[in-house]
Design a protein that fits this description.
disordered C terminus, alpha+beta, five-stranded antiparallel beta sheet, single chain, MYCBPAP, disordered N terminus, Ig-like_fold, 4 helices
Length: 231
């Protein structure tokens, strides 16, 4: 036999209101018999950092604070670098999540980067994480153009976390160009310090002095002529 009971909105210890006034249950609910159950507490461990509901509902509209995670990549240009985000539901209620890309300042580097396609790849679809379940999201970065590439994403959850503050992920990839002069540089570094610059200068000065000593001085010619005339 199916049993049902009606209940008003539940408030947790921090004042978070849980939507929904009617709940259907196939088990004889403890709520109908006056047994108090634990209120839903959303808590998500985000890459090792715990994000949960804090504060009360009166401050729900205050969203100035935010938590930011930076994921960095540093491959050679054209190569693929990978990383992973780990989301673990450590609360006692399901957490629905979705991704939204954030707009950054209209700087010159950002405007130039928008002319190229995105260099970051991951599953941007929404999902749900059950209590005690870990969700892993694979990230990849690849760029054939050397330089710095960034993207910012916001993780939206329902119920909200961190008193409604923004939970953000900044992806930062630095594509390194191949060093084509590494062999020549190693050869120069292996040379003795005195032979790098002193020897060419010494040879040049030696050539100048040796050339000037072979040519006779103009004064000596005059004196030689005078001596001939006197004779």
């Amino acid at each position: 036999m199916d049993h049902s009971c009606s209940s008003s909105s539940v408030l947790d210890s921090g004042g978070l209101e849980v939507l929904g006034s009617t709940k259907q249950s196939r088990d004889p609910p403890a709520q109908c018999h006056g047994v108090q159950t634990d209120p839903p507490v959303p808590a998500l461990r985000f890459c090792g950092q715990l994000a949960q509901w804090t504060g009360n509902s009166t401050n729900y509209q205050v969203r100035a604070a935010h938590a930011t995670l930076v994921v960095s990549f540093r491959p050679l240009a054209g190569e693929v670098a990978s990383s992973r985000l780990e989301l673990r539901n450590e609360g006692n209620t399901s957490i629905f999540y979705s991704w939204q890309q954030l707009d950054v300042s209209s700087s010159l580097s950002h405007l130039l980067s928008h002319r190229r396609r995105s260099c970051f790849y991951f599953n941007q679809s929404s999902g749900v994480i059950l209590p005690g379940v870990t969700q892993q999201i694979d990230l990849m970065f690849q760029s054939g153009v050397p330089g710095l590439h960034t993207e910012s994403w916001q993780l939206q959850t329902n119920p909200v976390l961190l008193q409604g503050a923004s939970v953000q992920v900044t992806l930062m990839g630095f594509a390194v160009s191949e060093d084509r002069t590494a062999e020549l540089r190693r050869h120069l570094e292996d040379l003795p310090k005195g032979s790098r610059f002193c020897h060419p200068r010494k040879n040049g000065l030696k050539g100048r002095f040796s050339g000037s000593s072979s040519s006779p001085c103009p004064g000596s010619r005059v004196r030689a002529g005078d001596s001939l005339m006197l004779r």
